[in-house]
Amino acid sequence: MSLDHILLGMMHEPASGYDLKREFEQSVRHFWFAELSQIYPALKKLEERGLLSSRPVPSSRGPERRVFETTGAGSEELERWLTSEPLIPKDRITYLAQLFFMGEMEDLSATEQFMERLRGSMATRLAVLEAIEAEWMGAIGIDGAALAVDGGALTEIEDDRVFHMYTTLRMGIHSLRSRVEWCDETLRAIRARQTRPRASTEDEGGSNPAIETAR
Amino acid sequence: MSLDHILLGMMHEPASGYDLKREFEQSVRHFWFAELSQIYPALKKLEERGLLSSRPVPSSRGPERRVFETTGAGSEELERWLTSEPLIPKDRITYLAQLFFMGEMEDLSATEQFMERLRGSMATRLAVLEAIEAEWMGAIGIDGAALAVDGGALTEIEDDRVFHMYTTLRMGIHSLRSRVEWCDETLRAIRARQTRPRASTEDEGGSNPAIETAR
DNA sequence: TCACTCATGTAATTGGTTACATGATTCC
DNA sequence: GGAATCATGTAACCAATTACATGAGTGA
After folding, report:
1. DSSP string spanning A139-172?
2. What is the three-class DSSP state of B83?
3. Residues ≥6 apart with Cβ < 8 Å to A136
4. Model pLDDT, residue A214
5. Measured between alpha carbons, how far is B20 from B7 in angstroms, rounded to an integer?
6. pLDDT digits over B12-53, tens only?
């Protein structure tokens, strides 16, 4: 299972379920999501399988924390996963399904509105990632265009970690930019179709020169 | 649930579970996937809810077919879904998770290999979609750049359906192109990092001019 | 006092995958 | 005779979401 391996991956230093959830919200966010109610039992099972070990640690405020760390078997399992084939999930893109079937509706105005909204949320998400990138560039001297990390005061391991984190961020940026572009392309096409001359419902049959001119 | 609505969307003409599975393999494929063992119970439940009706139809070969069609309530429910907000799934991108944690490994050669393989499968998928686009351009006169559909002998409803199908295909193409570009960008950066002068493991502390020159 | 954060969990349900069962017809 | 396709389903399991339960400490 992927969540298991992600949790193992996050264990480069000891952490509790609550800590991990916070890290999910921060860095892991743009490619994975997990609820606390999923994290706690997952950690428990990993411990049963001997891939993690835990100890209780008293907390200054609130109840006792259960802090986990990797075992030897745990890091072996992580490495196996990391060196395996790239795992490409089959994606279920709900909004594409909606768009696909929107052809059944009377006119294109529903589609237009839909695409405008979609563009809005994609652009917002993109802005978030671009802001993170800008922040990083300031803080640790990442060169976006060349994707080079100017290590500065970082140790080699930290520098490598930053590099890998940064490439995943870049993927999000690439991906969202292309989605926004696709929204724009689609909106242009919708508008072109709305203003062009249309065939009547009872069509003349065969090829229609009125449509041929549309673009 | 999304699968329910997708099934409703596929019901513009009566179909059996088996028919629908075939359509999944063909057109719906690049944004959704469902097994027969998921489709059959889903259809059954939709019928119980009064959104579909079914009748047995004798088959020329093999067992009797159960053919479903939409009810009034079914198309109302579909329209509600189509006119609702664009539903953006939280994505769980397994290969990004792998890449993210690959910083823990000794050198970048594992990452390089990983990115090469990833690029390979992305490029293959892209080629498939581009081939479909080329086929459609030949068959029904779609103009890729302008995203205009030259309806030709199509009726208006068919023409609109083709338009909506085509936009979803375009999204796949945009998306995969940007992923391939991202892979290339990342591979360039990996190679630049591999050949650049590196800080020793015991680093000199503070800023390092040898790294500064890397790009 | 009330809301919020810290902190850990269980239970019920939904959505999806994998494995299994059955049997007719058609094509090589 | 054997593999492939047509056709329908059930059962067991795994992954993820939603809802619920509990309780201490902090700050307005």
Report:
1. HH-EETTTTEE--TT--HHHHHHHHHHHHHHHHH
2. coil
3. A142, A166, A169
4. 35
5. 8
6. 999 999 999 999 999 999 999 999 999 999 999 999 999 999
Distance between CA atoms of residues A17 and A36, nearest Å: 7
118-137 of chain B touching strand C, CB 7 A cut-off: none
Picking from B150, B193, B207, the nearest residue to A212 by CB comes out as: B150
B151-185 as b/e: b if 16+ CB within 10 A: beebeeeebbbbbbbbbbbbbbbbbbbbbbebbeb
Task: Report d(CA B42, CA B3) in Å as an integer.
Answer: 8
CA distance B126 to B30: 11
Nucleotide nearest to A65 (CA to C1'): C7
Phi, psi of A54 (to 5 degrees): -135, 155
Q: Which residue has the higher pLDDT, A157 or B200?
A: A157
Q: For A95-142, what is the HEC assignment?
A: HHHHHHHHHHCCCCHHHHHHHHHHHHHHHHHHHHHHHHHHHHHHHHCE
Nucleotide at minimal C1' distance from the B66 CA:
D8
In B28-161, beta strands by DSSP E? 52-57, 65-70, 142-143, 148-149
pTM above 0.70, yes or no: yes
The CA distance from A19 to A28, in Å, is 13
- Give Dmax over CA atoms of chain B in angstroms: 81
